[in-house]
Amino acid sequence: MAEWELSRLLAAVVVLVLAVHTGCRDAPQSPKIRLTSEASESARPAGQPVKVPVRVAVAPVISPRENFRLYTPLVDYLADKLDRPVEFLQRPTYSEINDLVRNGHADIAFVCDYAYIQGKRDFGMQILAVPQIKGQRTYHSLLIVPAESEARSLENLHRKSFAFSDPLSSSGWLYPAFLLALKGQRPEGFFGRTVFTFSHDNTIRAVANRLVDGGAVDSLVYDFMVSQSPDLDRSLRVIGKSPAWGNPPVVVHPRIEPSLRERLRQILLSMHQDQRGKQLLANLMIDRFVSLDDTYYRDIRAMAATIKAQ
Hints:
By secondary structure, the chain is of the alpha/beta class. It has two domains: 131 residues, Periplasmic binding protein-like II (D-Maltodextrin-Binding Protein, domain 2), CATH 3.40.190.10; 147 residues, D-Maltodextrin-Binding Protein, domain 2 (3-Layer(aba) Sandwich). Helix content is 45%, strand content 19%. The strands form three sheets. It has a seven-stranded mixed sheet, sandwiched between helices. Strands 9-8-10-7-11 form a five-stranded mixed sheet. Helix 3 runs antiparallel to helix 12. It is globular, with a radius of gyration of 20 Å. The two termini are 24 Å apart.
């Protein structure tokens, strides 16, 4: 069985076991959710032009059910501000979200920084805005283990089981793979077993429930989950932390209609200035959206180049 197929199979087992432990049964894919009712559309006066939906894609940084719960209010806010219907799109992997943007099937997407680097290289993906969280425009990759683990560093996890989130995640795959590449090693040769969980919250739960010996996760998701469930923090221990990189960006295709791009950018950058927008951001633990220079992601490019040259 190919390594990728084995990883997907193991991921399915992890998610199934997590569902038993947590009572959460996330669907692997939520195709698209229209945030307008058929009743409202049927009430449209005859002859009035149909408003083309804006399609918003959200990468599976967290599992689909949580993505839907957290992001639907934000997407609904965009619909009201744009005065247009909105379609909320989800896919199981970062690569599939990139493909939606590449092929013009999504107008705007919330992606990971490594996925952005790949998208920029492949078809010119552009940053629209970046979330500022707790006053910071950067975040980290965290290497985590169960609280009682004897491991104190990545080296101590040799021949152990390890969970990654997604092959296009800088925090959930690229960083630990880069650390191993510096020592002339690859994940498949260093660890005894690896699995892709395809979301950071699944990785966190897999480690907390001792389904794997360690994992790599997004510090923003880790902080969010700990804030929601303090007991989780007592079940885990951080044994490694990456340098700071730019927060995961909101992106668009380079050929998006310029007026739509500018309108979306202005809505995001001004959300913190009205009460409803401010509350929505607070629910996502976001201070505000800001403009951010592409140079914040140069370390991601350097790590990817190191692994490619291995």
